[in-house]
Design a protein that fits this description.
363 residues; Beta Polymerase, domain 2; 2 domains; 5-stranded mixed β-sheet
């Protein structure tokens, strides 16, 4: 029965917590797995990590004392502590960019029942006593359909808290919790902490803007794969210099992707690998231009794709991905410059096949 005896209710809560500890850990693992499946399978957002935890019993009691006990006792309202701790189980989703917070919130709203939402993403206050921001918090429970599933019976009615943060917000939260005596430290230190918090927020926005600018740069990269339009300047005078004859810029990651995705439409080129691969191409052939790279691909890719088919028939377990195709195209275009593009065994196998294709077949 609820009461106003805090010592008694604290004892009851500790007993409840001990009895439910194993069940809470099971529920935590289940909720974490469900959230991870929902946000990763939805696509459209990049997730750094999904993790769960069961709130420590002493932390639960401190939260109750801080947030609820004074008002309940002031109003002479009996209580049981466990009914006020809605985040006994917590799940955290850490994403990369701040504009993905609401996308993730929208995804989970479609799969769980929402009890409450707290938006702390812009909680950097101007007062000296304010520290940082903590992202987006949602109090959730299983949807009606999930609650009726037998495998969820043990925790069907249990709520859990979902925290959605960016990597920057998560880092700030970890560091913020290490700052001791925040209510008592000198004003100058408080101001310095708030400045630091603002720098973390600025970093969040800068990363998002860099992502957007990089995507825009890729869209604006010249498309060497398109057929050149007739140049009006040379229509009446074939001897006049054409814009199409203007020097082409050096191949870079953006123009490489534009060309590579034209030849391999269903392959996702990882940005980190693209940077290194373009560096290799420029090391093998200094000054490689986007136009030259596109031209050599057009000239050689048909031959290499026939070799790829032959290779995969002979080696069913081996990989011959688009990077491998491009390496063979480079080698075929200039066997001296691009000799390092292929290992000895790959080069010898390719050369043997090329010779077989060149030899006249017996009548």
């Amino acid at each position: 029965m609820p009461s106003l005896d805090f010592d008694l209710e604290e004892s009851h809560f500790r007993t409840f917590y001990a009895e439910q500890s194993a069940a809470l850990e099971t529920a935590c693992a289940a909720f974490t797995a469900m959230v991870a499946a929902v946000v990763t399978q939805s696509g459209g957002v990049e997730i750094a990590k999904v993790e769960g935890r069961v709130k420590d019993v002493d932390e639960c009691i401190r939260k109750f004392v801080r947030k609820y006990r004074p008002a309940l006792e002031e109003n002479n309202t009996p209580y049981e502590i466990q009914h006020y701790i809605t985040d006994l189980v917590g799940v955290r989703v850490v994403c990369l960019y701040e504009d993905e917070l609401e996308k993730i919130a929208a995804i989970v709203r479609g799969h769980f029942a929402v009890i409450d939402v707290t938006d702390k993403v812009t909680a950097v206050e101007s007062t000296e006593a304010s520290f940082g921001y903590k992202g987006l918090h949602l109090d959730l429970k299983l949807s009606h359909a999930e609650r009726t599933q037998p495998e969820h019976a043990a925790y069907a009615q249990l709520p859990f808290e979902l925290q959605v943060r960016t990597i920057i917000q998560d880092s700030w939260s970890v560091l913020d919790h290490r700052i001791k005596y925040k209510k008592s430290i000198p004003s100058e230190l408080k101001r310095r902490i708030n400045v630091l918090s603002a720098l973390f927020e600025l970093a969040d926005r800068e990363f998002r803007q860099i992502r957007d600018a990089t995507a825009a740069e890729l869209l604006q990269a010249p498309d060497e794969t398109a057929e050149p339009l007739p140049d009006p300047a040379t229509a009446d005078n074939p001897q006049a210099p054409s814009k199409a004859q203007a020097p082409s810029s050096e191949l870079n990651a953006f123009t490489f992707l534009k060309i590579a995705t034209h030849f391999f439409k269903d392959f996702e080129f990882e940005p980190s690998k693209v940077d290194g691969f373009v560096d290799d191409i420029q090391a093998w052939s200094r000054g490689m231009t986007r136009a030259r790279f596109n031209a050599l691909m057009r000239e050689t890719v048909g031959v290499v794709k026939r070799y790829k088919q032959h290779f995969e028939e002979q080696n069913p377990q081996a990989s011959f991905n688009p990077y491998t195709v491009i390496r063979h195209c480079l080698y075929l275009s200039n066997k001296t410059a691009f000799r390092p593009a292929l290992r000895n065994s790959a080069r010898e196998s390719f050369e043997t096949w090329l010779q077989e294709q060149a030899e006249p077949k017996p009548q």
